């Protein structure tokens, strides 16, 4: 909204031309979302506490988690409010990539909200149920994939870019829809599985979102993309504003979510943020890089898959408990140690992902 206002004012006063620059709007997206998170955070936490929207804790989990019971959850709403307001203020809302990310974030956030509500208010540990959740995730994820495919303006938008190898680019054609669907839904569930300790999921999300913002800027800049050997995707740079908003909102949420947490994200935040990361990666053609940078999310997801498969096939468990962070807790690691070490791993993986910008 402010983007359009300043664009009109720029015709009268040259000073307002500065707000046309994507880098400035990306920074303003960070600061706006951060300020909103700080502003509404205490009120949201109080509201959740009054409504008794408290976290339920698995009795078979680490004993240290029993003290977390009753901590307000569904705090991801705070993140989504900050992201949407910052994006609406500073992004070009006619940009189809921005619209795709906003739609996916809202849709998966709605799925998470219903799931959280049923778990907490209706006291149903299943929430909406695995089948219903997957069905609605499929509807939203597939809808986004179809939209991006049928609005693509060049073959570069449906090409799989292989990191490091400059000349290996695979034209996916209709297979792009399937890839985009799996990336969006898979990323959503991966972040959700990681969200099990105070601040564990949000900091990797912030780092990955920030890195994807750099990729968006490069892919949407005709000179930088050519210099670094990437195909140019018109309009992709605008996604930087959303990435900035996610960084600011995520850091603001971490202020309240850091150990010991005053509020938890809940499915409303985890599903939405994961889907947003997946949609951004698909939009800027960096699915493989997302897999690298989001390695912590991947490890957590794979640990659950291996645990389930092993128990069903052999009756034995590979890990003491899945997802992976619980395994280390049961080995005796204090919760802060698990969290910070996973953050360090995420930082290393994000730097490796960013290195693929130049190593080609």
Summary of the model, kept short:
By secondary structure, this protein is mainly alpha-helical. It has 14 helices and two strands, in the order αααααββααααααααα.
Task: Write up what this structure looks like.
- The protein is mostly helical and 360 residues long.
- It contains 14 helices and 2 strands.
- It has a two-stranded antiparallel ribbon with strand order 1-2.
- The longest helix has 29 residues.
- The model has no long low-confidence stretch (mean pLDDT 90).
Q: What share of the residues lie within helices?
A: 55-70%
- Strand % is under 5%
Shape: globular
Number of helices: 14
**SSE order, as H and E?**
HHHHHEEHHHHHHHHH
Number of strands: 2
Q: Structural class of the secondary structure composition?
A: mainly alpha
Distance between the termini: 38 Å
Reported for the largest beta sheet, the result is: 2 strands, antiparallel
Can you give the mean pLDDT?
Answer: 90
Radius of gyration: 20 Å
Sequence of strands across the biggest β-sheet: 1-2
What are the salient characteristics of this protein?
2 strands, single chain, two-stranded antiparallel sheet, mainly alpha, 360 residues, globular, 2% strand
Walk me through the topology.
Elements: H1 2-9, H2 22-50, H3 76-90, H4 96-120, H5 130-150, E1 159-161, E2 169-171, H6 175-194, H7 202-219, H8 222-228, H9 239-257, H10 266-283, H11 287-293, H12 295-314, H13 324-330, H14 335-355
Antiparallel strand pairs: 1-2
């Amino acid at each position: 909204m402010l983007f359009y206002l300043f664009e009109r004012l720029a015709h009268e006063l040259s000073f307002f031309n500065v707000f046309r620059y994507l880098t400035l709007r990306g920074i303003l997206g960070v600061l706006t979302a951060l300020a909103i998170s700080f502003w509404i955070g205490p009120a949201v936490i109080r509201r959740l506490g009054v409504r008794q929207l408290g976290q339920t804790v698995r009795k078979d989990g680490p004993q240290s988690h029993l003290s977390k019971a009753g901590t307000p959850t569904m705090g991801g709403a705070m993140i989504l409010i900050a992201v949407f307001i910052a994006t609406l203020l500073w992004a070009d809302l006619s940009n189809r990539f921005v619209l795709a990310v906003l739609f996916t974030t809202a849709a998966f956030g709605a799925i998470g909200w219903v799931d959280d509500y049923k778990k907490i208010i209706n006291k149903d540990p299943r929430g909406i149920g695995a089948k219903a959740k997957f069905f609605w995730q499929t509807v939203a994820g597939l809808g986004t994939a179809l939209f991006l495919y049928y609005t693509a303006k060049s073959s570069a938008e449906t090409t799989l870019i292989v990191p490091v190898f400059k000349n290996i680019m695979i034209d996916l054609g209709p297979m792009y829809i399937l890839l985009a669907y799996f990336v969006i839904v898979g990323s959503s569930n991966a972040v959700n599985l990681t969200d099990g300790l105070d601040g564990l999921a949000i900091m990797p999300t912030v780092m990955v979102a920030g890195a994807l913002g750099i990729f968006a800027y490069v892919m949407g800049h005709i000179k930088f993309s050519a210099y670094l050997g990437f195909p140019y995707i018109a309009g992709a740079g605008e996604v930087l504003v959303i990435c900035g908003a996610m960084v600011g909102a995520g850091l603001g949420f971490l202020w309240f979510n850091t150990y010991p947490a005053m509020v938890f994200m809940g499915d409303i935040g985890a599903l939405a943020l994961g889907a947003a990361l997946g949609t951004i990666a698909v939009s800027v053609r960096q699915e493989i890089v997302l897999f690298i940078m989001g390695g912590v999310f991947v490890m957590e997801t794979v640990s659950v898959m291996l645990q389930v498969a092993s128990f069903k096939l052999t009756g034995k468990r590979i890990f003491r408990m899945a997802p992976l962070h619980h395994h280390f807790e049961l080995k005796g690691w204090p919760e802060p140690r698990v969290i910070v070490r996973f953050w360090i791993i995420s930082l290393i993986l994000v730097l490796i992902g960013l290195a693929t910008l130049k190593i080609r």
